[in-house]
Amino acid sequence: MSNHPFNLALRFILELAGLCIIATWAWVFHQGIYQWLAVVLYPAVAAAAWAIFRVEGESGKTLVRVNGITRLLIEILFFSTAARMLYQLDAGRLYSFFLLFVMIHYAVSYDRILRLIRNR
Which residues, 6 or more positions from 69, have their beta carbon under 8 angstroms from its beta carbon? Predict the structure, then answer.
C-alpha cells in the first residue's frame, strides 16, 4: 500500500506542506535580515536532511545510508516539527488536518513502516 499512487501523492503534498509551514513560521517569528535568512535556511536544512539520510533500497539516490529506525525518526521529527510550528502560528484547524493526513499516510504505509523497523 505504501507505493500506491494516491499515497505517494499524499506523501509528496505533506512534504511540500511541511516545508511551506517551516518557511511561514520562520517569516513570522524572525525579524529583519534574520527573517530572510531563516525563510531560506530552515526549509533548506529540513529538505537536505530529508534527501540526504536514506535507507538503502528505497527510491532515490542514497547519499548517507542510515538504518530504518533512524529514517523513521527523521520523518517523525520533520512532520512533528511542522505540526508544532502550525500550532505556534495559531492555525489550530490546519494543525488538526495536517496531523490527520500524516496519520492517514502512515496508517496506509504500514508495510513500509514495518520494513523500516526491520531494517536495522
Answer: 116, 117, 119, 120
